[in-house]
User: Which sequence fits this backbone?
């Protein structure tokens, strides 16, 4: 591979880099593009985030960029020698060339200014140690002191310096190693992987927010199971979701055994990732069976059962997601999908009646499609006959749901009669009775006694007014 990326750079980006270079020349300061942007260029991906290393004062340099070019208002982090701004479509970040001196007794390293090569040496992985020249003479030339280009070509993740020290200094790098292995589908080189195993316990000094941020990137990759298995085998996963690690293993009693919930879940996540890029829904896939180990019972007649795992699962999901600092919006969504995940397929065991479908549409509301995407991904049997049967059932529910929804519009259910009208027509004061009347109508609609319409609902109320006296 040539060590100039000149021909891979889009003219728009070239233009931005030329402008930045002009400012640096006037200020007599050296700057380089570094890190993920250069790595991704070599992988033929063009990002919108561009990191620059400034051999000098990044804050002052960014101030100069701001004075010279029509960029957004910069955000400065003087403590970290970092500044960022938006220019055209690009997010630009400027960092002082720095070295970090770690004292094991303290979490915060001492930061000192340095030159380009020392700055590259403190970066996490060889694939992230590349710098790119942006001077007109050598535009696109790569500075590659740790053979990063060759590691990118060979799809290898390794640290530029001694791995145990690298991870122990900043244990978030362990999560980042696994994140890159998953998103790029690279292998972590053996010595580096062993080092993660050896110092995995150090993850405890990292804030949950930063762990969750990397975890999300793993979940958002094309095949999250790669990262989840690595997190597990390196003893990282048990530090932030031990409940999931508990789902490993199969128990055999007589001729009965159950699925390994951990590996089933990995398969469900990979399957759902082919269908959706929604983090929320991928999290729901991760948690849908989380309570199976806790609710597992054995009966000689029926074998293994997991009664109530969706209810216990909802509670467990709630406490895990809170602990992992997910937003309330994500929490409520995932709880709901976990609670309802068995409902669609359970319907087919009975007869798929309109009223059962109506109730499900009402409960799932706008998340009905997502729920069905999970149910589809949840079909993982190795037995082709079973898969065929489940898929058939799935299709029955989908078909019926489309029919019922078209007719009854249950997903955006809003009572067809409003409280004020009820009070007026029946001469009632505000109070719990109004809620009861609305519930009475809701039930009648769900049961299919009346259609989801205003006039029909009122007629029904008039006919049954004796119930409210
Ligand atoms: P992406 O932006 O695609 O997630 P990236 O490699 O650009 O990946 P950033 O977090 O944007 O990651 O960081 C930019 C660069 O800073 C990295 O390429 C790496 O060189 C360096 N870096 C980031 N975090 C660390 C860390 N914890 N330890 C050492 N170097 C780091
Ligand atoms: Mg980046």
Assistant:
């Amino acid at each position: 591979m040539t060590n100039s990326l000149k021909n891979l750079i889009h003219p728009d980006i070239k233009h931005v880099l030329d402008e930045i270079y002009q400012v640096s020349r006037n200020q007599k300061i050296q700057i380089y593009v570094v890190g993920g942007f250069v790595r991704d260029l070599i992988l033929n991906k063009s990002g919108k985030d561009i990191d620059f290393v400034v051999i000098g004062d990044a804050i002052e340099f960014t101030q100069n960029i701001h004075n010279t070019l029509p960029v957004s208002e910069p955000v400065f982090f003087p403590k970290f020698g970092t500044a960022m701004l938006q220019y055209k479509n690009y997010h630009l970040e400027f960092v002082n060339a720095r070295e970090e001196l770690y004292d094991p007794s303290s979490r915060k390293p001492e930061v000192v200014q340095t030159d380009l090569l020392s700055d590259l040496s403190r970066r996490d992985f060889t694939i992230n140690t590349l710098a790119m020249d942006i001077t007109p003479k050598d535009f696109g030339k790569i500075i590659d002191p740790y053979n990063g280009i060759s590691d990118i070509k060979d799809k290898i993740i390794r640290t530029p310096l001694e791995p145990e020290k690298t991870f122990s200094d900043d244990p978030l790098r362990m999560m980042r190693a696994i994140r890159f292995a998953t998103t790029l589908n690279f292998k972590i080189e053996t010595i580096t992987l062993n080092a993660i195993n050896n110092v995995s316990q150090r993850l405890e000094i990292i804030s949950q927010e930063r762990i969750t941020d990397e975890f999300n990137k793993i979940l958002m990759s094309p095949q999250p199971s790669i990262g989840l298995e690595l997190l597990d085998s390196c003893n990282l996963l048990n530090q932030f979701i031990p409940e999931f690690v508990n789902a490993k293993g199969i128990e055999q009693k007589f001729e009965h055994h159950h699925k390994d919930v951990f590996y089933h879940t990995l398969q469900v996540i990979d399957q759902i990732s082919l269908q959706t890029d929604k983090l929320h829904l991928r999290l729901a896939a991760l948690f849908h069976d989380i309570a199976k180990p806790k609710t597992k019972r054995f009966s000689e007649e029926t074998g293994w059962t997991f009664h109530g795992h969706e209810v216990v699962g909802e509670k467990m999901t709630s406490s895990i997601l809170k602990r992992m600092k997910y937003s309330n919006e994500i929490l409520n969504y995932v709880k709901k999908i976990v609670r309802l995940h068995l409902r669609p397929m359970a319907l087919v065991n009975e007869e798929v009646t309109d009223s059962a479908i109506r109730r499900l549409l009402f409960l799932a509301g706008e998340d009905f499609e997502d729920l069905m995407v999970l149910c589809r991904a949840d079909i993982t049997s190795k037995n082709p006959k079973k898969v065929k049967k489940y898929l058939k059932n799935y299709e029955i529910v989908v078909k019926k749901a489309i029919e019922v929804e078209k007719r009854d519009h249950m997903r955006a259910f809003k009572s067809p009669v409003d409280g004020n009208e009820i009070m007026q027509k029946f001469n009632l004061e505000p109070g719990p009775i109004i809620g009861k009347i609305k519930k009475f109508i809701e039930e009648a609609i769900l049961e299919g006694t009346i259609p989801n319409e205003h006039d029909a609902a009122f007629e029904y109320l008039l006919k049954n007014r004796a119930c409210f006296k």
